[in-house]
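User: Teach me something about this protein's shape.
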Amino acid sequence: MAKTVVLVCVLLVACCVAHATMIDLRTFSADGEVTFYSDGTVATFAESKDHMETFLSDDPGMDDPEVIFAGPGVLLQFDYLFTDLSHNGDDGFSAWIIGPDGGSIGAAYEFSLSYSGDGVVSFDLTDLTDLVGAEPLGVQFQLSSLNGTSPDYDSTLQISNVQLVPEPVTVVALGSLLAGIFTARRLKRD
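Assistant: First, the predicted structure itself:
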């Protein structure tokens, strides 16, 4: 029985790893001061007096790489670190899912912040198959000077670990299925 439990755990981990897809940010279109880690897992944005908006996007309508697809149990997830050193809300960070037509697909798939912060954002792409079918989706990350009055141009944004991951419920369901199969095999053997 102990061997069966270990095998189920190993298979669950293998399934999770096999389904998590890290996205290379270097393939996205950038405007403004955006730099990348050499492996493409991190992008750093710097506010600039020359750009009211600094952005990084993957827009399938603009012939960008097709890397994001909706599906059952699929999440688009990323880490962010937004720093507004002026502390007055003059700048902001936003991210949103881009539909096949090139625009945002709605408020439920948008995230914005007008003060310093960090965290993880997840967009659940499960229910989008009815909206977009098998069409590719995109994502845009943007650092904005919200009212253009900050003379310091000191805000920064870091986006990292952008990936498509299986939803935890999907992993639990898969685990339950595997456990049931192994239990049935064991009962059949005995």
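Now, about its shape. The longest helix spans residues 168-189. The CA atoms of residues 135 and 182 lie 37 Å apart. If you'd like, I can walk through any region in more detail.
User: That's plenty for now, thanks!
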